Amino acid sequence: MADLTSALNEDNRADLVSALKSKIQSLAGQHSDVLENLSPNVRKRVEVLREIQNDCEEVQDEDDDYDDEEEHEPATLGFVEKPKNQWSLCRQYFPSKAGGVPAWLDPVNIPLGRTSVCDICEEPLQFLLQVYAPIEKETTFHRMLFVFMCPSMKCLLRDQHEQWKRHPEKPSRSVKVFRCQLPRDNPFYSRECPQYNESHPPVGSGAVLCDWCGTWKGDKICSGCRQARYCSEKHQVVSWSSGHKITCQKMKVSSYVPRPNNNGTASLESHKVESNNLWPEFEIIIEDESEYNGDMSEDNTSANSLISRNRTDETMNSLLDSFKGDDDKRSWANFQERIAKAPDQVLRYYRNSNAKPIWPISSGRPSQADIPKCNYCSGPMCCEFQILPQLLYYFGVENEVNSLDWASIVVYACEASCEATLPYKHEFAWVQLYSPSTTL
């Protein structure tokens, strides 16, 4: 026991793990039959030592992850801007976009049922953003990741609480991520690169979508006019109270019947999404972080920023005052230093690079063990991209007590981008809030 006692006195994790391994091997040997021949008390001690060893290795892995995050590898940055041409956000141009309605990559086999609703309040999820991220192999010639979330902060708080239940059988999430990928030869798009003009149509049409949200399949038909379509009873009810009660009578006697167009919705000339609660629509523009000079003057940074510097400083100082521990303050300082180079960024893309997420605060960060395996191939998941809270500013979300807010949303996707029977495969999002909830 001398080696184990020495390691404990020195408080050295690496030596402790090594000593534990040595002790376990000396007790149990390399074969299971040796363990079976030990007395019950000794076997119990071996199992306890193994549990301690696993805990120490997990903590060591977690510390290694945090050390890696201090490496300032450049990432690919995403910025939002209003599209110059509305047609450029149609699905045939494979857009990266935020807000509005999704441009479904597979416009026919859209997620249905409970996959399309918040698991907490059961309201249909709202489209947050999508990122076009093809991989150089045949099955992922086109590849898109979609992020949806419930706009309720109460649900997000519950979501953040639920994710700490490591790998539950039925997770309750208010943030959901879907991955869709297609080979070059597919039923929906030409093999050739699209010509970026308004006259370039997609191949075929998509599913008819909900008249209220324009996001999910409109499988429910209004029993009155037999024309309006909805993704859920909840959207049918809110549409009725918001004006369809009147227009329904007119549609009954009208010869107009909406038909799906190539975007998978009813004709834009005669039909628009009814909801006014969708987040405003932006195109996501991609730039390399290494192009931004870290010595950029404060005047230039302020001039190029769409976010008011005064508002930013007030928000940051308020948050800093709420951080009690030094670790949170160090994380916040590091986060601020990185973001200050390009304060308008709303997204950081990491796949195929050595860059790591930058966490605004140290508490609420996942360890390696908190990230689940792929639901379909059981392989490892890698960090795909990070969504920053700056996006809420562009969405016009007010800074109020119950307003939607987050510190970071980090999306993890199957490292192999595996194939599966589902057209839209579930991926994983880790939600970090400024004030992590412990009980609800």
TrEMBL record:
GO CC field: cytoplasm
Limits of the MYND-type domain: 210-248
PANTHER family registered for this protein in UniProt: PCDC2 PROGRAMMED CELL DEATH PROTEIN 2 -RELATED, PROGRAMMED CELL DEATH PROTEIN 2
An example molecular function term from Gene Ontology annotations: zinc ion binding
The UniProt record lists the keyword Metal-binding: yes
Name assigned to this protein: MYND-type domain-containing protein
Key words, A-Z: Metal-binding, Zinc, Zinc-finger
InterPro entries tied to this protein: NAP-like_sf, PDCD2_C, Znf_MYND
